[in-house]
Amino acid sequence: MTTNPHLLDPFACPSCGRALNAATNALPHEACPPRTGDFTVCLHCNTILAFMEGGAVRLLRPGEFETLHPVNQCTLLSVQLMIMTLPRSPISFHDQKG
Ligand SMILES: [Zn+2]
Question: Which parts of the chain have pLDDT scores under 70?
Fold first, then answer.
């Protein structure tokens, strides 16, 4: 993952409705902003989205994920896993067994 997100015009996730305004290249050798047909993952709900003309995004069509190259499937799943491990709130807890 790179640490330089591309700032985008704000758009709403079609799955959760929350605002998104940036995208980060998943592959370190890529440094361009998202283009039509590129995929992204919502940072809020972890839904895979596809960029459309004009910077809007859409949900994947049924079965579309399965048509992607296996490397791209793995990349998207890795991004989803990374998002799932991000700290979401300052709330923490200790295992009660310890
Ligand atoms: Zn979302």
Answer: 1-4, 89-94, 98
d(CA 79, CA 41): 7
pLDDT at residue number 70: 97
Cβ(30)–Cβ(50) under 8 Å? Answer: no
Nearest to 52 by CA among 14, 18, 89, 94: 14
Distance in Å, CA 2 to ligand 1 centroid = 21
Residue 2: the pLDDT is: 46
pLDDT at res. 38? 92
- CA–centroid distance, 4 to ligand 1, in Å, is 21
Domain ranges of the chain: 6-84
